[in-house]
Write a structure and sequence with these properties.
The chain is of the alpha+beta class. The protein contains four helices and four strands. The protein starts with 6 loop residues before the first helix and ends with a helix.
Length: 186
């Protein structure tokens, strides 16, 4: 029987399979590495694009924050201007009030009564003076009650040491506003 040696063919086949396996492993490794590299590039480009969008948003937010600060500054300036306008309007309306108050003081002081001082702080007026009698002071208080520009009197002191001497008095009066005076009828 003839002898056929199959070992070299098997060895060659094994070598070929080994070579094909190594080629497939190398191709798979190259394909996997390429896929990883390409996916890394794609993800990096997406990250870069998102970073650019975020930078644009940050810049726009910064601009809006500056505009908001400017709006708040303008609102503060507006509030200050409105307050000034209200003060000016108040002064404009009350400009003639002091003239009316002095006119009323002349009208409420009866004969025989003399004023020593008149002090005004805002709408409060403090009057000191002397009168020939307590009756003259009472007449003055009644005149204040009938006045459109003076209201809320408070006789804080009346001093009459003896019946023949003059009565010294101290009186606090509140000045009415223009609107109150108009309502009262003047």
């Amino acid at each position: 029987m003839p002898r056929i040696n199959l070992l070299p063919w098997r060895a060659e086949l094994r070598q070929k399979r080994k070579k094909d396996f190594m080629t497939a492993v190398l191709a798979a490794a190259l394909f996997g590495g390429g896929s990883v590299y390409v996916s890394k590039l794609v993800m990096q480009s997406r990250i870069d694009a998102q970073t650019e969008r975020n930078d644009i948003l940050r810049a726009e937010i910064k601009k809006l924050d500056e505009q908001i600060a400017e709006i708040r500054n303008l609102q503060t300036q507006r509030d200050r201007l409105v307050a000034r306008m209200e003060v000016i309007d108040s002064l404009q309306r009350s400009r003639s009030e002091i003239v009316h108050v002095f006119d009323e003081i002349v009208n409420i002081v009866p004969d025989g009564t003399y004023l020593r001082s008149i002090k005004q702080q805002q709408s409060n007026i403090e009057v000191t003076g002397v009168a020939e009698s307590n009756g003259r002071v009472a007449t003055m208080l009644r005149n204040i009650e009938g006045s459109a520009w003076l209201k809320d009197h408070d006789l804080s002191k009346i001093d009459n040491p003896n019946p023949t001497a003059r009565a010294q008095f101290s009186l606090k009066i509140t000045q009415a506003t223009t609107d109150e005076a108009k309502r009262k009828g003047q």
